[in-house]
Amino acid sequence: MQVGAMRLELRLSGARSLKDKRQVVQRVVGRVSARFDVSIAEVEALDDHRRAVIGVAVVSNDGPHLRALLEGIARFVEQLHVAQVVGQEIDVQPFERQPPAWMDEL
Questions:
Q1: How far is Cα 19 from Cα 68, in angstroms, rounded to an integer?
Q2: Of 9, 82, 84, 98, which is least packed with CB atoms within 10 Å of its CB?
Q3: Where are the beta strands (DSSP E) in the chain?
Q4: pLDDT at position 97 over 90
Q5: Which ranges of 12-62 does DSSP label H, i.e. alpha helix?
Q6: 10 Å Cβ neighbour count for 82?
Q7: What is the pLDDT of residues 10-34, one digit of tens each?
Q8: Cα dihedral sign for 69, 5, 58, 23?
């Protein structure tokens, strides 16, 4: 199993308050959730109305597919024209199941 995570940093030039920011973040999260089968949430900069940091997570059995999916989500967010993507980090890692500790005793 492969686990993919992405951190998107957004500049919210039009937001004058946390209420304005919340509207933009809700739009981004809602549109991404409706289009892609991923987990998404605001994860940092919660009290800064000028920027938002969005985290996206997804699992698959295909690492290259995960990377392409996350890159596509970043492009999709940019094309919404509600915020400028100023930073993007993607990490795809294998998640290997470890046998339970009690099996070491057998």
A1: 33
A2: 98
A3: 2-11, 39-44, 51-60, 84-94
A4: no
A5: 18-35
A6: 17
A7: 999 888 899 989 999 999 999 999 9
A8: negative
